[in-house]
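User: Just a sanity check before I run the rest of the batch. Below are the structure tokens for the first item. I only need the designed sequence back.
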């Protein structure tokens, strides 16, 4: 009996070890992306979620993912094309737009992610503005953590304006307002 108990304990410990193995998020540049931005995202995602991050090879920007205006790329097309069974965060320095349906005009976004899902895309383009690099990087971090939040199943938060899951509605003002923080309501959903 004692032997069985010990065996069960070992099996339990082994299974909990497997379950706590951090998941891996693959960061993929879409077109040319500054290595510093990817390294920063890698550290930020690891610090906040505890996930391992691996930077993978570049994907090319191709005409099939252009938005209707053909002046920028369409986030939804990128997600569909790059949808993966692995957790993938795509990053581009080009402008990206979202189009809800044919009845809506396209509008520029910072990022887009499946909810829930494993793939999201972020763009540095609308975050740069006329701000110091540290400010820009902080914005980029918030957008990345927000889109991964969508992948984990989180909707936009209306609970607390300081929460990173609040909809930015295309303005950096809201991104700047947020803390590197999820409100308890959002955390409780993904824990
Ligand atoms: Zn969002
Ligand atoms: Zn929240």
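Assistant: Here's the designed sequence for the first item:
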């Amino acid at each position: 009996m004692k032997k069985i108990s010990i065996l069960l304990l070992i099996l339990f410990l082994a299974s909990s070890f497997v379950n706590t193995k951090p998941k891996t998020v693959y960061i993929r540049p879409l077109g040319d992306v500054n290595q510093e931005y990817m390294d920063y995202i890698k550290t930020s995602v690891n610090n906040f979620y505890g996930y391992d991050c691996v930077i993978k090879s570049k994907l090319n920007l191709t005409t099939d993912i252009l938005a209707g205006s053909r002046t920028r790329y369409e986030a939804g097309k990128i997600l569909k094309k790059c949808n993966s069974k692995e957790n993938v965060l795509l990053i581009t320095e080009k402008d990206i737009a979202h189009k809800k349906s044919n009845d809506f005009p396209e509008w520029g976004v910072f990022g887009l992610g499946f909810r829930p899902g494993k793939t999201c895309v972020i763009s540095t383009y609308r975050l740069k503005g006329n701000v110091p690099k540290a400010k820009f990087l902080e914005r980029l971090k918030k957008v990345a953590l927000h889109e991964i939040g969508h992948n984990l199943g989180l909707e936009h938060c209306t609970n607390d304006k300081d929460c990173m899951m609040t909809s930015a509605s295309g303005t950096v003002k809201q991104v700047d307002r947020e803390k590197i923080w999820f409100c308890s309501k959002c955390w409780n959903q993904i824990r």
